[in-house]
Amino acid sequence: NFLHLNPNYSFQDYNKYKYSKKDSLSLPFFDDFFTSRIYPDSSKWLNNQVYINNGFGKYPPTYNVATFDALASDGFPYNNTINKDYSSAGDSLISQPINLVNNPVSMPYTLADSIMLSFYYQPNGNGYHLNSQDSLFVYFKAKNGLWFKVWGVAGQANSEDFKHVILPITDVNYLHGNFQFMFTTYTRQVANANHWNIDYVLLDEDRKKNEDFYYDYAIQSVPASLLKNYASMPYNHFTVNQASQMEDKVYFRISSVYNEGLNIETTARDSFNGIEIYYKNETAANNLLPFSSKERFLDIYTIPSLPGTSPLVINRSVSIKEGGTLENENKVNDKLLSSQVFDDYYAYDDGTAERGFGFDQNINPTNIEGQIAYGFDVTK
Predict the structure, then answer these.
(1) Structural domains of the chain in order of their starting residue, each with its CATH number
(2) pLDDT digits over 160-212, tens only?
(3) 91/76 Cα distance (integer angstroms)
(4) CB within 8 A of 169, min separation 6: which ones?
(5) Sheet harboring 181-189: ordered strands across?
(6) N or C: which end of the chain has fewer CB within 10 A?
(7) 3-class secondary-structure state, position 80
(8) CA-to-CA separations, 339 to 231, 232, 236, 295, in angstroms, rounded
């Protein structure tokens, strides 16, 4: 968990303490977590136990997923224990109250309005494997205040592609002014493991149960580092031999949840201190197949001299648009900002720990404390 790994990091108050019950929301309810960082959006979600990230999901519908594990929001294990033979509730994600009494023009909702909840889920992803003792559930909150399970799935050892689920509301007891839905897990207490990923959550009316596509395409991943061996390194080390440190291929991924092929135009810009140092526009080409994703490659370029003191930051942006006539329902996920940082350290990764390893002193037969060395090939 980010907070546990970075105990001195300080969030602004509105990011850390804004989770509380608010006035009921109106339909549609939608979140693909694209604009969230670490915690879910508190205007849509009541709690903050899940981890919003782009590292745990394998080829998600859009950039960022909500990852469930067995760590509480403070980064410590639930029940303050790590025991693979003990199972209990893990992370949950609870929506803010939603008005299912009247629509925006004050007409009462009925079951004939075909209100449905849909989402994508993935077991494991890039995280640690589940087994059949681990489960993911969806609950609906009835007008009497009680929660009822409406869907569930058991864990499995192997990761799979994201699966689409759509759940119709078929009981009038859910048509009330403070309706809520909840994703929750029951899991072995093994801390940062037993991962589930959720993405592209939609609750809306006038839906069809057999209609599993959306008029949407999106950016799926952040552009890869410009550096071949590191995510970041000191700038004066980089300039010793820039050519040997630059990545051979730099790419990002795009995705589609539409049921027809698309031709996607991509635009990439890199700038330093407001001055553009790289630009590429690729016209609509390289057909993106239905319900698929693919890489889009960017040019390798020579980084000009960067004046100033560390950290030196290259601001990067990528954006996409469809070359035809598709009316994209969600344009927010069509542009992504990132950065290439040169600072006073070397780093191999992006800071999200999808896996871990260590030494268990309780079973070490020689009772010798373990040590781990982290090595870097420095250039000077």
Answers:
(1) 2-204 (2.60.120.260), 217-342 (2.60.40.10)
(2) 899 999 999 999 999 999 999 999 998 777 767 788 999 999 999 999 999 99
(3) 12
(4) 100, 111, 115, 116, 117, 140, 175
(5) 83-94, 181-189, 135-141, 147-154
(6) C
(7) helix
(8) 10, 10, 18, 19
